[in-house]
Amino acid sequence: QFWVFIFLMGRRSFVGGNWKCNGDKESIRKLLGLLNGASLAESVEVVVSPPTIYLDFCQSFAASNIQVAAQNCHDQPKGAFTGAISAEMVKDLDIPFVILGHSERRSVFGESDELIGNKVKHALEVGIKVILCIGEQLEDREADKTMEVVIRQLEAAVPGINNWDNVVIAYEPVWAIGTGKTASPEQAQEVHEKIRAWISEKVSADVAGGVRIIYGGSVKKANCADLASQADIDGFLVGGASLIPDFVDIINSMA
């Protein structure tokens, strides 16, 4: 995999904090105060993703080295879609990123691979950068179907990607999200390497070498350094640990 080493130095590390359905104005102000005042490695791109209702509030308080992401958006620009927000609305707030395809959107809200692919295409067309989440359930891993699932999810999204510079792939084994279980550094690296190889074969070696593939799934202060040491892990999408001061250490582990 010579191409991995060619591009390794060119991939800027990326750490996102997915706050999910957590927080209020007071806690967000405190958390951003902590992050704004922390010494964050300049070599790491940092993004936080608050609940939709706090996107504008968060954007107004975040320092210039901390970007904001929406947690979801619809695949249509407007219309009779009660409760939805469009990529155009995200763009109107000058929010640069959106998380799409998170396992909770897939499993809890029943979003299909096709719908997520449509969302990815529309968000990119509007000018929003996408954090595309993919990952297998526990039964998939136990049946040795991890790559089958991951490739199926990628195949639904790849045709709609018009600029790979605006895409970050987040591999999140669902069995490790919020469970306290974490894929070992070796397990995570194996999947990341296979994802990159698939992209090299199906898209191009240049894209495969340049796209950032980050890991999510119970990332915390105690395990981030070992995960960060793997060649094909370019950062993290962090859940619960992004709501506490440990998030600073996780960010800096990727420096």
Task: Describe the protein's architecture and organization.
With 255 residues, this protein is α/β, with parallel strands linked by helices. The protein has an eight-stranded parallel sheet, with helices on one face. The protein has twelve helices and eight strands. Mean pLDDT is 95; it is low at 1-8. The protein is globular, with a radius of gyration of 17 Å. The longest helix has 18 residues, at 185-202. Strand 1, helix 2 and strand 2 (44-49) form a beta-alpha-beta unit. Helix 6 (113-126) crosses helix 8. It has helices at residues 2-8, 25-37, 55-61, 87-92, 103-107, 113-126, 138-142, 146-157, 185-202, 205-210, 224-228, 246-252, and strands at residues 13-18, 44-49, 66-70, 97-100, 129-134, 167-171, 212-215, 235-238.
Q: What's the oligomerization state?
A: single chain
Number of strands: 8
Which overall shape is indicated by the principal axes computed on the Cα atoms?
globular
State the helicity in percent bands.
40-55%
User: Could you tell me how far the N terminus lies from the C terminus, measured between alpha carbons in angstroms?
Assistant: 23 Å
Instruction: Give the helix tally.
Output: 12
The major sheet is characterized as: 8 strands, parallel
